[in-house]
Amino acid sequence: MSKNVEQTIKDLMSVVLNLNAAKIDDRTSVDNTPGWDSANQINLILALEEEFSISFDVSEFELMVSFKEIVKAVKAKI
Amino acid sequence: MTDHRASIKANLESGAVQAAMQDARLLLQQQPSLINFKFMRQLVDQLPPGAPGLKPYKVALISSFSIEFIHDSLIAYGFVNGLRVDIYQPGFGQINQAMLDPGSALYAFAPDVTILAIEGEDWLPEIYTSFMDADATATDLGAVVARFRQQLAALVTSFRAATSSPLLVHNLAQPRLRRAGISDWRLPNGQASMVADLNHAIAEVLADVVDVHMVDYAALVSQFGVKNWYDSRMRLYAKAPIANGMLGNLALEYMKYFRALGGLTKKCLVLDLDNTLWGGVVGEDGVEGIQLGANYPGSAFVEFQRVVLDLYRRGVILAIASKNNPADVDAVFNNHKFMLLRKEYFAELQIHWEPKSESLKRIAKQLSIGLEHMVFADDNPAECEQVRRELPMLSVIHLPSRPELYADALSAEGLFDTLALSDEDRRRGQLYQQRAQAQTMLSASGNLEDYYRDLAMELTIARVDQTSLARAAQLTQKTNQFNLTTIRYSEAELAKRMADPDWIAITVSVRDRFGDNGIVGVMMARADADGLDIDTFLLSCRVIGRAVESAMLAHLCDAAQARGLTKLYGKVIPTDKNVPSRDLFDKHGFSKQSEDAHGMTSWALDLTCNPVRLPDWFKLPG
After folding, report:
1. Domains, chain B
2. Which of B356, B235, B243, B341 is nearest to B292 (CA)?
3. What is the distance between the alpha carbons of residues B359 and B99, in angstroms, rounded to a whole number?
4. I need a surface site. Which of A46, A62, B392, B571 has the fewest CB within 10 A?
């Protein structure tokens, strides 16, 4: 993979949540990001699945609510 | 991929919308992913209202399940097709509230198209879910079909009473699993046969209502396979049963309808020859050496030719753009026994060594077809790229590296699909041959009037009726060049005009010594206090340049006078395409009344002093 995982995730989040990728960091979460609603939570997970060819359980959906947790969840699968 | 994205952005910023559409088409072909759909949606959202080159298109989505995850792909593919899609969607399960109440938000939205998307599980749990609970003799299951038919008919008729806009209705996919296992087929009302009955009922109900069309969802799901199509996780968690990776395919299926409804259907397919219609290069390998025949890879090229032949039989105009020696090509047409496509099926052949973009321009001119209605298919990436760059309004199909994939590549997008096949469509191939013969005659006879006389044209002018309604509406949707106002009518809207005593709606058919051209003209006019006001006046490009328009105006003069009216009024709304029709009124003695800031002109003719007369070379039967 040419880009590192963190950067790829930032790029996906920036498109799905309509954010500036440069401003995404470990503190970025559902609580401080207005566009991060339940539909976009699903969109984000589906986009991650597509990008990394992985699949998440529904039980994991609700844990992936910050950039930090998402990186952790993705790295556990690739 | 990033290159395409950057180039879409750059093209949009510089106003090159068609080039951006080309890039978007490539991006989504190579990677139809959620992230690319979202990227495209955000670009479209940022465009100013009324951005040039895109037609606003309002889509209402009514569904029995959660369908909102399709929005991004609908907007993205809409952009590829020149549409700026705006979506209205009530909550799922709001089908009855939305469609039965004439005051509903659905009708207030005034959609250009409405889609009714249903999953059997939601609407017919007796058959899809709790099937095994029913009595084994299953007389009650027969009643389920009857009740479903009634419900659907009520929805469709209420919809049609409330609006004249088109409606698309899904049929039903087969259940994900057979509840009775391998014995389903033995049951008097097994699941498989029940679903077949239901789909038959859907087709019957829809066929009775004007401008309502079926989306063959069952065929679409089976094409990709039930296991790929659905995501049970999302079905149970979010009531969104369709898998993320499949939503784009459903959006592409809807695009076929949007194009057909919006007059964006492609009309002409231009093909390369070497490594396209056959394998190898005829100039080097000779007629005997090319790959075309019973064994692979020749069999793959035969299969591709069969798909092209189907398109010809459906009324698509075929042409060739090939870098070759004409004599080599003739040798293949004349002597190769596996050539399914005959030379006479091609309305125009450009066989020389000049750039393909040049060949395509000449074909467009010869056949009077807009480049935006043409598709070019070639195996050579350089040729495809050259055409894309020079002619961004044209659709290019780059044939894949393996010939067994050609047929799918040509059919996948359904670029040539129409909502119905008319007799005119089925005979179009012959019509273009006749046209070529007539043009040869014009250059031989020299004088225009002699040419008209030689053509021995017979006109049939008739009121639009049930048998001609579909063709008349199709002409208003498809005709661009000889069209004074370019007002598009759906069948339902045209039917209203047809029934209104203040309106006349007329079709014109032309037969000449080369054969019957079928219905080629439509006129609509409304009677007001002292005159007949022309609303629509159009002529298929097939018969432009034969003074048929003079005969049509003469008929309108007669029709006005028969109603005791003394004036004929008309207007010309200029478009990029309708240059050939703009001088119609001027040439026929009308006087210009006014011109507005957009170049729209209004005209009037006083019938008491100079009505238009029927040119004497036309024969009117009866």
Report:
1. 50-261 (3.40.50.1110), 268-411 (3.40.50.1000), 455-606 (3.40.630.30)
2. B341
3. 50
4. A62
Partners of B84 in beta bridges: B56
- What gap in Å lies between CA A65 and CA A73, rounded to an integer? 11
Residue numbers in B near A18 (CB within 8 A): 42
Q: Does residue B398 register a pLDDT over 70? A: yes
Domain A5-75 in CATH 1.10.1200.10: yes
Q: Do A47 and B69 touch (CB under 8 A)?
A: no
Interface touch A50/B245, C-beta < 8 Å: yes
| Residue among A50, A57, A58 whose CB faces B33 most closely | A50
Q: Is B69 in Cβ contact with A50 (below 8 Å)?
A: no
Token pair listed for A75: 């790295």
Interfacial residues of A (vs B; Cβ cutoff 8 Å): 12, 15-16, 18, 39, 42-43, 46-47, 49-51, 57-58, 61
Residue from A3, A44, A50, A62 to probe the interface with B (highest B Cβ count within 10 Å): A50
Burial of B344 (0-12, 13-18, 19+ CB in 10 A): exposed
Each domain of chain A, given as residue ranges in start order, spans 5-75
Q: Which residues does chain B have within 8 Å of residue A60's beta carbon, measured at their own beta carbons?
A: none
Q: Cβ atoms within 10 A of the Cβ of A75, count? A: 12
Q: Tell me what ipTM this predicted complex has.
A: 0.94
Query: pLDDT tens, B171-209?
Result: 999 999 999 999 999 988 899 999 999 999 999 999 989
Residue B371's closest CA among B388, B353, B355, B349?
B388
pTM over 0.90: no
